[in-house]
């Protein structure tokens, strides 16, 4: 908060009392007071619930906090960070899974989402119903989605293997095996979130001007050329927004992983991402200090991804 | 593509265009089925006996039974959790709207983008890194397991969400109306309260509905902060997996009960929900 902002907040606190002869003289003055009166509750909430806890987490990451929450804790410097970064059994595999999951799932979601958006771009009969169907996966409780796919993908009784067998393909283990669990969960994520990308891009497509495309049509550009050289560049900022939104959420995926594979991401930690790892450290092992260090590293990682993606997509105003 | 184009084109091209339109219709149908069928499969399984659920040859044609729902109702835990989720969702959404809508107005109306981007911090930070300190704090004052903590922690999601959606909504409203109100003798707050806020009602409704759905779905916060008495639907469902993992029918009935309100919301508020979910992304 800059100094002018601090001063303005102070003014609001003054003006919360009846003005008593200090009534705002101009419209601007009144607006400014109101502006800060309206902002203060939300800013206070954000400060209390986010800024303070973040500071606490950073402090916690420098201590040996363990066990009961009111146990004594000592500052141990960067030991937790050294422990985390030298842990090749849980930490680094979790980093790798987080990256694989995010890159794989989001790349598929972007390509499929863009293809679907182009497919649905021009109005068609039943558009309303198709859009309704598209929002259902992204509004449905992720735990319910996990359960529904556990049933469909059940290795012995699931309909997925039944369908595979009926067209002569080999049966799969899906979530029942160490090697297939993560790819399976990526596909579930693709099923759940591709509609989000499609809807975002459809909204972006409706705001594009028609003239450039018409001009390209007159110049004899075919459908692919119009898409590649006219629509795609104009849609760039919206694609960037969708990419950042999906990347941030995919990095933080927790619900379907935990609901389908349980604590630790399975017997061999096969779906344990950073988020699942940090959760287990905190609430299953009470390793608060180490967990906080992992979370600080995880947060920095996400911020790095967001900054990189936003710089590359040239977008300043929206995540 | 307009009709005049099509009639002007030679016959062969018309045929090709019709073929393409047919292909597009078929593709859209297939895609829609891919997204709809898993959910339909879950709904269907809720009305099957356990023998039918675990037999993939039983498709969508069978004689339905309400047995699974009877089990759920008799057990009571799922219904109780739906009550808890309703309470947490309504209270957290209402409180969030009260502080987020005015803030969004200030940001949108005065173009305070730097302050507005604080909202993004809340989106980026992993929720667990806030859960640990909250847990520390709330465990010390003995609040873990209470509705208060569930509501407060949910507001961490709802306040930024509602603010985010409403900023672009307010930015799209004309300033002139408020200014006309001021000229007619309304105070700055009066102009907001009597003119802008009523105009923003549809946006507020959308944002609140989305915030409620997110609260209804939130798993991690409830997993940490709820106890047996206050557990919300995702946690009840999660626990159900572990103590009734062979009762697929019951599980599907529970999942169906929890999903139906969301599907109803999607059908009724389809247009507005899409606008809410995609707000901020469509301004080029």
Explain how this protein is built.
The complex is a heterodimer of chains A (319) and B (284). Chain A contains 13 helices and no strands. By secondary structure, chain A is mainly alpha-helical. Chain A has 2 domains: 3-60, no CATH class; 91-313, MetI-like fold. The longest helix of chain A is centred in the first third of the chain and has 34 residues, at 27-60. Chain A is globular and about 75 Å long. Chain A starts with a helix and ends in a 6-residue tail after the last helix. Chain B folds into 2 domains: 13-67, no CATH class; 69-277, MetI-like (MetI-like fold, Orthogonal Bundle), CATH 1.10.3720.10. Chain B is flat and about 70 Å long. The two termini of chain B are 24 Å apart. The model of chain B is unreliable at 1-9 (pLDDT under 50). At the A-B interface, helix 2, helix 5, helix 6, helix 7 and helix 8 of A face helix 2, helix 5, helix 7, helix 8 and helix 9 of B. Chain A: Residues 1-26 are annotated as: Disordered. Chain A: InterPro entries: MetI-like (IPR000515), MetI-like_sf (IPR035906), Sugar_ABC_transporter (IPR052730). Chain A: Keywords: Membrane, Transmembrane, Transmembrane helix, Transport.
């Amino acid at each position: 908060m800059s100094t002018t902002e601090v001063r303005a907040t102070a003014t609001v606190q003054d003006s919360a009392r009846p003005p008593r002869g200090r009534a705002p003289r101009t419209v601007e003055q009144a607006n400014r007071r109101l502006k800060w009166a309206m902002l203060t509750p939300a800013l206070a909430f954000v400060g209390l619930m986010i800024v303070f806890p973040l500071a606490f987490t950073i402090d916690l990451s420098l201590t040996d906090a363990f066990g009961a929450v009111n146990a004594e804790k000592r500052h141990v410097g960067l030991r937790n960070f050294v422990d985390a970064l030298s842990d090749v059994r849980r930490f680094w595999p979790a980093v790798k899974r987080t990256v694989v999951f995010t890159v794989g799932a989001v790349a598929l979601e972007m390509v499929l989402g863009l293809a679907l958006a182009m497919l649905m771009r021009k109005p068609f009969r039943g558009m309303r119903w198709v859009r309704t169907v598209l929002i259902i996966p992204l509004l449905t409780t992720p735990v319910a989605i996990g359960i529904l796919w556990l049933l469909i993908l059940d290795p012995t009784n699931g309909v997925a293997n039944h369908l595979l067998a009926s067209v002569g393909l080999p049966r799969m283990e899906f979530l029942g095996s160490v090697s297939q669990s993560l790819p399976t969960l990526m596909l579930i994520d693709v099923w759940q979130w591709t509609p989000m990308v499609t809807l975002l891009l459809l909204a972006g497509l409706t705001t594009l001007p028609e003239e450039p495309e018409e001009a390209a049509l007159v110049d004899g550009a075919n459908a692919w050329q119009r898409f590649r050289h006219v629509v795609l560049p104009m849609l760039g900022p919206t694609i960037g927004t969708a990419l950042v939104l999906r990347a941030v959420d995919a990095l933080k995926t927790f619900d379907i992983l935990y609901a389908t594979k349980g604590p630790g991401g399975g017997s061999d930690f096969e779906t344990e991402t950073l988020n699942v790892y940090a959760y287990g450290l905190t609430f299953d092992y009470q390793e608060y200090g180490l967990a906080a260090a992992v979370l600080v590293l995880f947060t920095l990682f996400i911020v790095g991804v967001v900054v990189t993606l936003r710089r590359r997509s040239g977008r300043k105003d929206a995540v | 593509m307009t009709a005049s184009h099509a009639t002007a084109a030679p016959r062969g091209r018309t045929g090709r265009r019709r073929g393409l339109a047919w292909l597009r219709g078929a593709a859209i149908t297939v895609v829609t089925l891919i997204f709809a069928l898993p959910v339909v499969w879950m709904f269907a399984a809720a009305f099957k006996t356990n023998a039918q659920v675990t037999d993939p040859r039983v498709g969508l044609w069978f004689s339905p039974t309400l047995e699974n729902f009877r089990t759920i109702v008799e057990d009571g835990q799922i219904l109780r959790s739906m009550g808890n989720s309703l309470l947490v969702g309504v209270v957290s959404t209402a409180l969030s709207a009260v502080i987020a809508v005015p803030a969004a107005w200030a940001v949108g109306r005065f173009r305070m983008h730097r302050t507005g981007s604080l909202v993004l911090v809340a989106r980026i930070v992993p929720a667990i890194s806030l859960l640990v300190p909250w847990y520390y704090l709330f465990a010390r004052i003995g609040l873990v397991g209470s509705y208060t903590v569930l509501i407060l922690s949910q507001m961490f999601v709802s306040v930024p969400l509602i603010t985010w959606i409403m900023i672009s909504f307010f930015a799209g409203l004309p300033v002139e109306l408020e200014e006309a109100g001021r000229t007619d003798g309304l105070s700055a707050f009066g102009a907001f309260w009597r003119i802008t806020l009523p105009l923003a009602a549809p946006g507020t409704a959308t944002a609140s509905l989305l915030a409620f759905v997110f609260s209804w779905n939130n798993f991690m916060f409830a997993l940490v902060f709820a106890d047996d008495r206050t557990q919300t639907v995702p946690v009840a469902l999660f626990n159900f997996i572990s103590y009734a993992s062979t009762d697929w029918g019951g599980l599907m009935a529970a999942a169906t009960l929890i999903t139906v309100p969301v599907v109803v919301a999607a059908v009724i508020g389809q247009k507005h929900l899409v606008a809410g979910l995609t707000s901020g992304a469509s301004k080029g």
